[in-house]
């Protein structure tokens, strides 16, 4: 009897699983993507995007089984009647001048903007509860979002997903610029990914490398999208994006060659088994930087060209699901190398030594045609010793003019001159190559106004001090050290004075 | 024949007796084991770890708290049962030469920040009010689960606090203090609401022993890094990071805890001996008079780890699969697809629409407060000057 029971159970299980094998294909799908963009300043930007699309209308159907779509976020959508949610946590600032235009930029700190469904009755209460729940999920202080930092924009922040009406009453936007992003925010963000940090592109997400960057931005975007081209039904899309910019000098040690290992201290080994697409794109639109061309190793099997952000760009594509990409080496370490033609320039710089020698800078430059080249040097003004100033320091100090020696291509080729026969003005510079002629030009000298001390001050100080000493101290000194005696006023005329004289001669007291 | 029957009967009874005695022995053994099971009286473990100092030069307090966090996680308490409060962010501080790391030893051997850290209260959220609300459970209803201390009367709670303190108080973020009396009252509230079974309180601040002087609730054991009148000192600075990395007491506690594993039988008396005066310069103190059990019977893992008592059973449990739900919803979806018109995306910057939208009228509220008072004053002055008979000109 006891043995028959487990047998019966076994049979049930087999039948059961046979029934399940005819179940419908899973209704959610994951796509992961990494885009590596070398920036004009020598840094490298890496943008991860993980997109989970769930073919389900959360508003109409009851959900009991979560597979790829994280349960924590799925429950939020139904409980708070969300139409769209966009949360970003950013450290740093995207420097558009040096790095170009970003795919998506986020403000420093935390930004949360949400569109609620129009079936909701109390938007502000849901907004407050939602920010509290999100602060628990992402370990950020989003609970500080309240009416003092929430606004309802009226013109922008239209929904990025499907919308059938845009009454801005259901939109709320808040930014917390003081928020710090650190590993405790990355950890729950990583846990929302289906493959966590175990397989696929998410193995590269190591905190100690990702936070050693000039710009770090992680975001979560939830919105409804079209399920197919006819757009008759709704799917929910969750995008998790992470953008980092690695600094060439801090992490690259000044070298311009990059590799995945140098950036992330990891390489890619396998795609995420739950992903339907797992790709790495490398921007190989070559920048004209001193004639260098960008080479990617290993060479890509496919390229992708399109107009991105207004310019035509070419990308090298590495599809991790394609077994030829991750071959026998079992790991993919992409390397970006800059190949430059052989150096034809020359730079010599000798810095100055105080009171010994001046600066010397010599450069050999090849100037492209019809272009303007500017050479600039930064300098700081220093104070000299007071004996080193000239008697007229307010005139300024002179910097010697720069010298430009150039080989200018000639319009007409010159023939070699005979030094004895030709006039003197033609034989100043020897001509070696008839296709170009040599010129030496000078710039103007530079007159620099150095900070000049006020040389009259010592004199002023001496005068003032002596006056003070004489008047104040001198008076006290006199009062304290002089003795005073009373003197009788002298009375009487000339006769009395003569008589006193005689008496004094005799030794008798005067009158 | 009869004698053999008697013999065999006797044998069977003897065998029966023996079996019975063995059975009873086994039963009493099982009872003993069951007794051991609930020896400590707790079924789950919680930890509340608080660092109360802000600013870069208080790096060591964050490192202290993170070391205890790391030990507690390693010994089994999950993140959902740990409330970690850090008053400032040291790992991603712009002054940190190694971002996303917090080190405990000057040779940068141990990164206590790790890769899997979840900070529940951070930066400005670490206040005396939030700390007391977490302990007593009086939290606003919208607080997420990870920020609550959901302990019951069978929970053993470890509370670790570090920062700058004085005689009878602990400073929070350089702007407010919590006194030992408030703390004792909070623990009494917890006892009255049956929020803990046993509580271990560790504090690493200057004059730390003053913080546990006023406790009066049962089942509390307390440790402190220094006595009243003594300062707790820091361990060693790191020349690359530029600040002191840890406090001495917690450094030696961390060293002690690194040798504990979930199965170890080390007891509290060993923890009391952890940092003698020769190493710590201050005199660590402890208080066990409120605690029911003898400290030498209290295991370290009773508070620092989450050792689950597991019972193995050989019964089988069968589950019924529910495949009905998934199929029906799929059918419904197939029907809806044909009947709707296509949906469309919103225009991102509809300039014409933006320019021509009308401004929304604000709801009208009757005037109140200052405006009402001002108008009442004006009307009163008017009628006083001109007399009430002029009202007929108005109405």
From TrEMBL, chain A:
Presence of the UniProt keyword Iron in the record: no
- Its signal peptide is 1-23
Question: What is one GO cellular-component annotation here?
Answer: GPI-anchor transamidase complex
| Superkingdom | Eukaryota
Cross-referenced InterPro entries, in alphabetical order?
Answer: PIG-T
Task: For this entry, list what GO says about its biological process.
Answer: attachment of GPI anchor to protein
One matching Pfam family is Gpi16
Membrane-spanning residues where?
459-480
State the UniProt keywords alphabetically.
Answer: Membrane, Signal, Transmembrane, Transmembrane helix
The record's PANTHER family line, in alphabetical order, gives: GPI TRANSAMIDASE COMPONENT PIG-T (PTHR12959:SF11), GPI TRANSAMIDASE COMPONENT PIG-T-RELATED (PTHR12959)
Q: What is this protein called?
A: Phosphatidylinositol glycan anchor biosynthesis class T
Q: Which organism is it from?
A: Catagonus wagneri
Gene assigned in the entry? PIGT
From TrEMBL, chain B:
User: What Pfam families does the annotation carry?
Assistant: Peptidase_C13 (PF01650)
Q: Care to name a GO molecular-function term for this sequence?
A: GPI-anchor transamidase activity
Q: Name one GO cellular component term.
A: GPI-anchor transamidase complex
Q: How does this protein lie in the membrane?
A: Single-pass type I membrane protein
Signal peptide, first to last residue: 1-28
Transmembrane spans: 364-383
Q: Which UniProt keywords apply?
A: GPI-anchor biosynthesis, Membrane, Signal, Transmembrane, Transmembrane helix
What is the first-listed, main subcellular location in coarse terms? endoplasmic reticulum
GO term, biological process aspect, one: proteolysis
Q: Where in the cell is it found?
A: Endoplasmic reticulum membrane
Q: Does the keyword Repressor apply?
A: no
Keyword hit for Membrane? yes
What does the subunit section of this Swiss-Prot or TrEMBL entry state?
Answer: Heteropentamer. Part of the GPI-anchor transamidase complex, consisting of PIGK, PIGT, PIGS, PIGU and GAA1. Interacts with GPAA1. Interacts with PIGT; this interaction, via a disulfide link, stabilizes the expression of GAA1 and PIGK and links them to PIGS.
| Family indicated by similarity | Belongs to the peptidase C13 family.
In its UniProt entry, what is this protein called? GPI-anchor transamidase
What organism, scientifically named, is this protein from? Catagonus wagneri (Chacoan peccary)
What lineage is this protein's organism placed in? Eukaryota, Metazoa, Chordata, Craniata, Vertebrata
């Amino acid at each position: 009897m006891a043995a028959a029971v487990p047998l019966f159970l076994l049979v049930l299980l087999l039948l059961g699983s046979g029934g399940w094998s005819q179940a419908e294909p899973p209704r959610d799908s994951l796509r992961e993507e990494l885009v590596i963009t070398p920036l004009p300043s020598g840094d490298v930007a890496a943008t991860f995007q993980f997109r989970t699309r769930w073919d389900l209308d959360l508003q109409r159907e009851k959900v009991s089984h979560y597979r790829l779509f994280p349960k924590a976020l799925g429950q939020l959508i139904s409980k708070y009647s969300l139409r769209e949610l966009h949360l970003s946590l950013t450290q740093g600032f995207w420097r558009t001048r040096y790095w170009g235009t970003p795919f998506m930029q986020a403000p420093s700190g935390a930004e949360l903007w949400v569109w609620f469904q129009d079936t909701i009755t109390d938007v502000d209460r849901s907004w407050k509860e939602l920010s509290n729940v999100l602060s628990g999920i992402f370990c950020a202080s989003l609970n500080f979002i309240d009416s003092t930092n929430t606004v309802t924009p009226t013109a922008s922040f239209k929904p990025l997903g499907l919308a059938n009406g845009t009454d801005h009453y259901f939109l709320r936007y808040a930014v917390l610029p003081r928020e710090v992003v650190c590993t405790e925010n990355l950890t729950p963000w990583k846990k929302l990914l289906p493959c966590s940090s175990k397989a696929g592109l998410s193995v590269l997400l190591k905190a100690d490398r990702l936070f050693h960057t000039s710009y770090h931005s992680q975001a979560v975007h939830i919105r409804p999208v079209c399920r197919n081209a006819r757009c008759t039904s709704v799917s929910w899309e969750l995008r998790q994006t992470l953008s980092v910019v690695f600094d060439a000098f801090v992490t690259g040690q000044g070298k311009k060659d990059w590799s995945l290992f140098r950036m992330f201290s990891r390489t890619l080994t396998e795609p995420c088994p739950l992903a339907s697409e797992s790709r790495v794109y490398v921007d190989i639109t070559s920048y004209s930087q001193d004639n260098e061309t960008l080479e990617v190793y290993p060479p890509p099997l496919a390229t992708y060209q399109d107009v991105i952000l207004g310019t035509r760009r070419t990308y090298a594509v590495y599809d991790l699901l394609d077994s030829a990409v991750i071959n026998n080496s079992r790991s993919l370490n992409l390397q970006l190398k800059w190949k430059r033609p052989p150096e034809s320039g020359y730079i010599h710089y000798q810095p100055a030594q105080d009171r010994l020698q001046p600066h010397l800078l010599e450069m050999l430059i090849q100037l492209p045609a019809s272009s303007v080249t500017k050479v600039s040097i930064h300098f700081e003004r220093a104070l000299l010793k007071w004996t080193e100033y000239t008697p007229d320091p307010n005139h300024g100090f002179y910097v010697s003019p720069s010298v430009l020696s150039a080989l200018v291509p000639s319009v007409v080729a010159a023939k070699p001159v005979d030094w004895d026969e030709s006039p003197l003005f033609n034989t100043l510079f020897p001509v070696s190559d008839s296709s170009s002629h040599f010129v030496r030009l000078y710039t103007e000298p530079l007159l620099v106004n150095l900070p000049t001390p006020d040389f009259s001050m010592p004199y002023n100080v001496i005068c003032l001090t002596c006056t003070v000493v004489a008047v104040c101290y001198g008076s006290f000194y006199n009062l304290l050290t002089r003795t005073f005696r009373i003197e009788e006023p002298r009375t009487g005329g000339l006769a009395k004075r003569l008589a006193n004289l005689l008496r004094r001669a005799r030794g008798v007291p005067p009158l | 024949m009869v004698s053999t029957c008697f013999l065999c009967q006797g044998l069977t009874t003897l065998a029966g007796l023996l079996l019975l005695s063995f059975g009873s022995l086994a039963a009493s053994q099982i009872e003993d084991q069951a007794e051991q099971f609930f020896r400590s009286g707790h079924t789950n473990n919680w930890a509340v770890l608080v660092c109360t100092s802000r600013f870069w030069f208080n790096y060591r307090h964050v490192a202290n708290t993170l070391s205890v966090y790391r030990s507690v996680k390693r010994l089994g308490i999950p993140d959902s049962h740990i409330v970690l409060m850090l008053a400032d962010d040291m790992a991603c501080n712009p002054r940190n030469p190694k971002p996303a790391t917090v080190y405990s030893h000057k040779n940068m051997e141990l990164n206590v920040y790790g890769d899997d850290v979840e900070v529940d209260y951070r930066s400005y959220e670490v206040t005396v009010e939030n700390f007391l609300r977490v302990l007593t459970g009086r939290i606003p209803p919208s607080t997420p689960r990870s920020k609550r201390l959901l302990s019951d009367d069978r929970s053993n709670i470890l509370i670790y606090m570090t920062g700058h303190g004085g005689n009878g108080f602990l400073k929070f973020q350089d702007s407010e203090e919590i006194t030992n009396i408030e703390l004792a009252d909070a623990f009494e509230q917890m006892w009255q609401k049956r929020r803990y079974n046993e509580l271990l309180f560790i504090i690493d601040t200057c004059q730390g022993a003053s913080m546990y002087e006023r406790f009066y609730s049962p089942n509390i054991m307390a440790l402190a890094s220094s006595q009243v009148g003594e300062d707790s000192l820091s361990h060693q600075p790191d020349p690359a990071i530029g600040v002191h990395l840890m406090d001495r007491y917690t450094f030696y506690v961390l060293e002690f805890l690194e040798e504990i594993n979930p199965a170890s039988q080390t007891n509290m008396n060993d923890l009391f001996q952890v940092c003698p005066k020769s190493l710590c310069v201050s005199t660590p103190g402890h208080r066990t008079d409120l605690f029911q059990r003898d400290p030498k019977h209290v295991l370290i893992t009773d508070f620092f780890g989450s050792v689950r008592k597991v019972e193995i059973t050989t019964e089988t449990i069968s589950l019924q699969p529910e495949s009905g739900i998934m199929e029906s919803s799929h059918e419904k979806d197939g029907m809806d697809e044909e009947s709707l018109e296509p949906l469309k995306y919103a225009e991102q910057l509809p300039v014409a629409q933006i320019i021509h939208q009308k401004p929304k009228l604000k709801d009208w509220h009757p005037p109140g407060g200052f405006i009402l008072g001002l108008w009442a004053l004006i009307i009163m002055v008017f009628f006083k000057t001109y007399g009430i008979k002029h009202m007929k000109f108005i109405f």
